[in-house]
Write a structure and sequence with these properties.
With 175 residues, this protein is an all-alpha fold. 53% of the residues lie in helices and 0% in strands.
């Protein structure tokens, strides 16, 4: 290694420096004021404190000529908390199913306790999903009734799964 420092070169010492952007015509005009630029951003209601950033990208068109998705105009109540509730429900459900597969009875605490703990976040997450999908039914209805009916079927499926979980809770509590 050498102890030589790198040599600093000024732009006017570089061959062809006249082609650099600062030498282009109109380069003498001043840069825009950063404060003016920020005021334009800060006046946008999407950037107010506490406002949730929604997807504002253009909607791509699918092969059938319809939009690939309908943008969500209003966020659901849970927003990011949906994932964390789902994880709690998943862990509790795994414990319950594993215990039942290993021979535990519905009356055992290893089944009842995780079932009751996991049921609350599961119902909240299911309600959040049903609300989001139900809103998409209304958004899709004027565009494609087939897609809207498909999503309505998912709302019914969530309701059926909620009934199954309620039946499991009833069996566990009565055992």
């Amino acid at each position: 290694m050498s102890n030589e420092r790198p040599r600093i070169v000024r732009p006017d010492q570089i061959a062809g420096a006249e082609a650099l952007p600062h030498a282009l015509p109109g380069a003498e005009e001043p840069a825009p004021d950063a404060g003016d630029l920020m005021r334009g951003v800060l006046l946008d209601e999407r950037y107010e404190p506490g406002m949730i950033k929604l997807d504002r990208q253009p909607v791509p068109i699918a092969d059938d000529g319809l939009p690939a998705f309908v943008p969500e105009l209003e966020p659901t109540p849970l927003r990011g908390g949906y994932i964390y509730l789902s994880v709690v429900a998943l862990v509790c459900g795994t414990i319950v199913i594993s215990a039942l597969n290993l021979g535990a009875r519905w009356s055992d605490g290893v089944v009842k306790v995780p079932l009751l703990i996991g049921a609350v976040p599961l119902f909240i997450a299911m309600a959040e999903a049903a609300l989001r999908i139900a809103r998409s039914v209304g958004a899709w209805w004027p565009i494609s009734r087939g897609r809207a009916l498909f999503r309505a079927g998912w709302v019914l499926m969530i309701g059926a799964l909620a009934a199954i979980v309620l039946a499991a809770i009833g069996v566990a509590l009565s055992a």
